Amino acid sequence: MGMERGTRRGPPRPLSVAPMMDWTDRHYRRFLRGLTRRTLLYSEMVTANAVLLGDRERLLGHDDVERPVVLQLGGDDPARLAEAAVVAVAWGYDEVNLNVGCPSDRVQRGRFGACLMAEPALVADAVRAMRGAAPVPVTVKHRLGIDELDHDAHLHAFVGGLVAAGVDRVVVHARKAWLSGLSPKQNRSVPPLQHERVVALKAAFPGLRVETNGGVRDLDTALDFLRRVDGVMIGRAAIEDPYLLAEADQRVFGDERPVPTRAEAVTAYLPYVEAQRAAGTPWTALVKPVIPLLRGVRGARAWRRTLTEGATRRDAGPELLAAALAALPDEVALTSGSALARGSALARGPAPAPERLIDCRA
Ligand SMILES: Cc1cc2nc3c(=O)[nH]c(=O)nc-3n(C[C@H](O)[C@H](O)[C@H](O)COP(=O)(O)O)c2cc1C
Question: Largest CB tally within 10 Å, which of 46, 74, 120, 264?
């Protein structure tokens, strides 16, 4: 397959946090920046039509601190996607990603998302148009296959078309999707993970940056995959246990800065909470990403209770978050990285089933 040599845009992105509807909004991304500065962060999916016709401040607004950040687009019209990509760049996004992975009914009716895996030429046209219009990396997030179109011949032809169109990287959710019969949620757990097929895809396209996604729950696993593919994208684990990202800058990116403690991450978020509360942002939206920070460690229950009870107080603000922090056992608040996991403070109960915590409305 002919790779357009020398035209590849952007640095490699060894680690990213997946686009997740209802989760990866600006508040979540801002909070994560207290844990990792280097990990690539994605927006929720926004349709090209919404970008072109909707309230851009609400849909696209974000802070420079969140960078590097990617806008994920949904759509099936190359010209509109290209226009939306131009808007994304004007709003400060570092990259644009096309969603070819979401299997929900609402998305299929619009003929985009995972069903586009059956239309390789259209997806290639979209990539070519976006890349021609916007001077940033253009990437595609897709599945291994859909329905009966679930063999490597199809997958490799699909990706070959993207390569010819100039795609800068692909992110493969390493399972197929069933377009009928399974809900979006089931489509994230029922079809088995097949990371080895992503590794084979990389071997077939050595000049293409290939990232794998699905079921990665810790940095050890991510580092292991990084020996065989160019990047790893973490989804649910990053919302259920965000502190797993605290060691990412050191372990994945080789930074020398010390691993932040939970207290440091929350403290870095306080001025943002204050500004957002003053601007009228609901408390629940601001603390949603912070609540799971204590997952599996002592003090988690009181932390969760204090923060959720704040929703009933009109004046809930940074002071409440600071008070919840002050109430934590020191070894939890102030111990960084996996030191805690080795220490006595660990009180892991049974892990909640990830599928029960969250629901994709897309
Ligand atoms: C709540 C939720 C919302 C999601 N929304 C999107 C989305 O907007 N766009 C997308 O490409 N994938 C979406 N996904 C899929 C994730 O990006 C990811 O591919 C999937 O969860 C597998 O990775 P994981 O096992 O690490 O979670 C969503 C997943 C979840 C759990």
Answer: 74
| Six-digit token string for 164 | 């010819």
CATH 1.20.120 fits 262-348, yes or no: yes
Q: What is the mean pLDDT of residues 176-194?
A: 91
CA triplet 208, 213, 214: central angle to 5 degrees? 155
Class of domain 15-251: alpha beta
Please, which residues have CB within 8 angstroms of residue 214's CB and are 6 or more apart in sequence? 173, 174, 175, 193, 195, 235
| pLDDT score at 106 | 65
Q: In whole angstroms, give the CA distance from residue 110 to residue 212.
A: 26
Instruction: Say which DSSP state 297 is in.
Output: B
- 347: Cα separation from own chain's centroid: 28
Mutate to test the pocket of ligand 1, among 20, 117, 233 (most ligand atoms within 8 A of CB): 20
Ligand 1 proximal residues by C-beta, below 6 Å? 18-23, 44-45, 72, 99, 101-102, 141, 173, 188, 213-216, 234-237, 358, 360, 362
Whole-prediction pTM: 0.92
Q: Which atom of ligand 1 is nearest to the CA of 173?
A: 19
